[in-house]
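REQUEST ID: PR-0412
SUBMITTED BY: lab tech R.K.
PRIORITY: routine
TASK: structure prediction, single protein chain
INPUT:
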Amino acid sequence: MKVFKYYIIWGFFMMFWVRCAPKTSNEKSVVEISSPSNNIKIGFSLKANGTPVYWIKHQDKAIIDTSVLGFELKDQEALLNGFKLLGQDTSSFSETWKMPWGEQQEVLNSYREMVVKLEEAEGAKRKLNIYFRAYDDGIGFRYEFPKSGDGTAKQEVMITKENTQFKLTDNHTCWWIPGDWDSYEHLYNTTKFSEIDALSKRKAASLMQTTIKANAVNTPVTMRTAEGLHLSFHEANLTDYAGMTLEIDPKNLSMQSALVGSQRTGYLVKRTLPFKTPWRTIQISEKAGDLIESKLILNLNEPNKLGDVSWFKPKKYVGIWWEMHLGKSSWDKKSGKHGATTENAKSFIDFAAKNNITGLLVEGWNTGWEDWLGKDREGVFDFVTPYPDYDLKEVVRYGKEKGVEVIMHHETSAAPRTYEKQLKPAYSLMKDLGIKAVKTGYVGKILPEGEYHHGQWMVNHYRKVLTTAAQYNIAINAHEPIKATGIRRTYPNAIAREGVRGQEFNAWASDGGNKPDHTTIIPFTRGLAGPIDFTPGVFNIKLEPYKDKNQVSTTLAKQLALYVVIYSPVQMACDLVEHYGEHPALQFIRDVGVDWEQSKVLDGAIGDYITVVRKERGTGKWFLGSITDEKARTLKASLNFLEQRKSYVATIYRDGEKADWKENPTDYAIEKFIVNNQTSIDLKLAAGGGTAISLIPATDEEIKNIKAYPRAK
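STATUS: complete
OUTPUT:
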């Protein structure tokens, strides 16, 4: 009898404890989803106080520890805790979509999705939904602010802080640039995660730039774990929202979203409900090269809204540009050495037509360059009126006669309100002339004062320019841009961006220019965001006679290899016409493609070396580019990607035996061999060097007369 009473009392106690005891994670609120191959898992739960948290595993090992989610708002209670789980929806999706232009023709978009539906347990009962998508190559999640509440909730939110946390599991090796609110044009740093904070503060102080958030990094930021797993943190579909930097907490090995601010408002983002935020993304791969092959960022954007964009053709181009950076000519006419003249433009057109180059960029063509860097920049530029020595219509006519299309140039001098007033007349002029692409620029501090290049106000400006241009069948190559976040899938007239420390820094940067490892880092960092207008092709590497201190820190062969390694559908042959002449290595620029059916990374280690191959759409031709940092290397490149039972002519543009990026950068050699998919080529890369190879289907005559590549002994 006593035993029976004991069990009765124990039963009532357990019932009371289950109902009343505090719960660190309500069992009903713990949910998980896996990627299609189950290699990646995302978990979600609510803490005891109703705070949303998530975690990520790769091969059942944690790569993101329990991390919090939420928001702080202006004039409202924060959305940080007090939530209950209303439910969750799960689904799977798989499609293959076609890129109108790009690194490849078809893209697999396959994921599993979990939508977590939250509501405040008390008060206004505001709702918050979180979408999680698990791919085999990474994850994405975003917030949704639905219309919600008990009638007292506001239908507009002003976000003062987004509390999205990424808690790391170890002190990873990182490749990063400072969290600059105005520019991505920095050299990348290679450090342990715990060293970022102190170094970024020193850099901000030394540069005296108030736009650099001293303890933050810009995205994409890429990491490698001690076990060799690669992670890259970024965002996708940045629409009507502030750009995200990541604030570093070195002590707790954690990062947290830090949105770009505005000095004109008391908030970072202002939106009307309902709306969705950009996706927060992590690309995950066991090999560094798989980060580049990943299409996660693109897949997290909406499908093409423009339909047929065949009016844009990927192209190589030349231009009146590099000569200004060298000091040979100038953008303005007042200096007496104006570069954008009708005569000069025609000389570039003649060169382009002769060398299978179909585009011409002309900078400094329009009035306003005398005052473009002044404090009062509003209204300085006129985007329809050329200087008297530049006959725009005649240059366009002459180009069409020679098969060369003019690429327009619009430098806004960071006065976007002036540009917006002239968008329609400027684009109408382009349409009337048959010009299909424009390079835009935003050099300087944004006007109105208090706004930054990467804040919500400018994000919306860049989008307005893009959508307005689409109405006129015009493609945008944006410099000093907001970062690429895959919007080129939705608006494929977004063809390229700068957003990186580019080639021009080699001409005039006070630190001597980009280091040899710079181009071995950016494919794994900035390159993951989207196409880069890096402007390769310098043959006069010592910059003589124009510069006496700077040079380009590569060999000539590496300049050729960059056409393959750094992707863009618009690739510039940037050097002066007289520096190309009849140079034998110019043949690679004539031959290399710009629109691809396939792209593969054969090998790569971030900051050390990378080898990429790409197959041109519609021709069966392949091109290989391989580059190294300041260290000489010998790499192997198996050609097993070539079509079986088919021979190709491999024209190899390699570093010469005495080549060195600093001492002897123009030493090169050109060799030709017959190869097939059984061939393995030795790539001998000099310090700061590279190799470029064209692989073109061979004719019977070529097979007969060109020797086969030597078999490995």
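NOTES: The mean pLDDT is 94.
REVIEWED BY: pending
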